[in-house]
Amino acid sequence: MKQGLLILGAIAILSVLLIARIVVVHQKRLGDEEKWFAQSLGYEFSAEIDSVKMYNSNGGRVWARITAGNPKVYREDSLKNHFKQHGMMYFIFDQSGDSICFILQYANRLTLGDSVRISSSQDKVTIFHEGKSVAQEPLSKSVVGYGDSPFKRD
């Protein structure tokens, strides 16, 4: 009886460790793909903040007017067939003329009239207030999407 319980306990511990390993490896692959996506977008542009709608105490949806560069949002759609770990990813939600809408995890640092610089080559989103850099975050952490299950088979 004791031997049977020990075997079952060992099997349970091994199963939990294997599942944890699968989840950790999957999370790493998700992060790698987010970095690849951010770099592949080729975004190099600046925009001025028009409005912010907060979702929680930190993140929110940002509407901005492009002041320099061209985001060429069609790149996001052209990359979607290359995802291996994600079901979908995007940075810019909407574009109308020279206005764009995107989500930032640290939108609470923004005020109307601030400038934001998006750089795929540096994997950076930089916020400027009155010409001075006040915050910097990786662009790869600002892309929005969802991952496929780590247990999904191709």
Give the secondary structure arrangement, pairings included:
Elements: H1 2-41, E1 44-54, E2 60-68, H2 74-79, E3 86-90, E4 92-96, E5 99-104, E6 115-119, E7 124-129, E8 132-137, E9 144-147
Antiparallel strand pairs: 1-2, 1-6, 2-5, 3-9, 4-5, 6-7, 7-8
Key terms:
154 residues, alpha+beta, seven-stranded antiparallel β-sheet, two-stranded antiparallel ribbon, 2 helices, elongated
Question: What does this protein look like?
Answer:
- The chain is α+β, with helices and mostly antiparallel strands and 154 residues long.
- The protein has one domain.
- The protein has 2 helices and 9 strands.
- The protein has helices at residues 2-41, 74-79, and strands spanning 44-54, 60-68, 86-90, 92-96, 99-104, 115-119, 124-129, 132-137, 144-147.
- The strands form 2 sheets. Strands 4-5-2-1-6-7-8 form a 7-stranded antiparallel β-sheet, with no helix packed on it.
- The radius of gyration is 20 Å and the shape is elongated.
- It starts with a helix and ends in a 7-residue tail after the last strand.
